[in-house]
Amino acid sequence: MSFSDFSKAESIASLNSFLADKSYIQGTSATQADVSVYKAFQKEYPALTRWLNHIASFTEEFEQLPAGEVPASKEAPAAADDEDDVDLFGSDDDEVDEEAEKLKQQRLADYAAKKAAKGPKPAAKSMVSLDVKPWDDETDLEQMLANVKSIEVDGLVWGAHQWVPVGFGIKKLQINLVIEDDKVSLTDLQASIEEDEDHVQSTDVVAMSKI
């Protein structure tokens, strides 16, 4: 369907079909043609446009919204006479329904205030189990442990630890920790631990889970 053909469209269904494989009314980027159609649609269907824009603002909360009942569909009204058909390409000078616009802005403001009142989302955290391997059976394990736990980083909390035999009288340190994902890099943390070259041979992440 060409652009000239679409200018004769008479319904929302025609507009929807036309846009099925397109992102814009004409060409490959937004133009005044898109603005013209949007304004015409908004003027003819102010309540529907306001509702679509308002519900779109809840996109990030779709899964958390409470249950509700969808009202039973009503029979579609009979088609209007040709002279009453919707002109989706009305003049660019058409004014947006002021009441609908005010209501939309009020709803958006209420939503913004609601999100602000909730405060920031809790930080994403991970629980990690880390192996710290000493050089040999003569390594001072208690000093190695002290050196590891002396590392302080914002968003890092050290947890319980245990000594795990690996053979030939050597024991490795296995220690738990909790990190805030946005603040602590495990790679950087391991590098910091391995800087203790007198005690630490290497480190490995044994387990990791989100909390």
Automatic annotation (TrEMBL):
| Keyword Metal-binding on entry | no
Q: Which GO terms describe its biological process?
A: maintenance of translational fidelity; negative regulation of actin filament bundle assembly; regulation of translational termination
Task: Return one GO MF term.
Answer: guanyl-nucleotide exchange factor activity
List the InterPro entries hit by this protein, alphabetically. Answer: Arc1-like_N, eEF-1beta-like_sf, EF-1_beta_acid_region_euk, EF1B_bsu/dsu, EF1B_bsu/dsu_GNE, Glutathione-S-Trfase_C_sf, Transl_elong_EF1B/ribsomal_bS6, Transl_elong_EF1B_B/D_CS
Acidic residues bias (residue ranges): 80-91
- Region entry Disordered: which residue ranges? 70-91
What region holds the Translation elongation factor EF1B beta/delta subunit guanine nucleotide exchange domain? Answer: 125-211
Q: Where is the Elongation factor 1 beta central acidic region eukaryote domain?
A: 88-115
Q: Which residues cross the membrane?
A: none
Q: Where is the composition biased (Low complexity)?
A: 70-79
Q: Which UniProt keywords apply?
A: Elongation factor, Protein biosynthesis
Q: Which GO terms describe its cellular component?
A: cytosol; eukaryotic translation elongation factor 1 complex; ribosome
SMART domains hit by this protein: EF-1_beta_acid, EF1_GNE
Would you identify the family this protein belongs to, as annotated? Belongs to the EF-1-beta/EF-1-delta family.
Mind telling me what this protein is named? Elongation factor 1-beta
User: Which species?
Assistant: Wickerhamomyces anomalus (strain ATCC 58044 / CBS 1984 / NCYC 433 / NRRL Y-366-8) (Yeast)
> The organism's lineage?
Eukaryota, Fungi, Dikarya, Ascomycota, Saccharomycotina
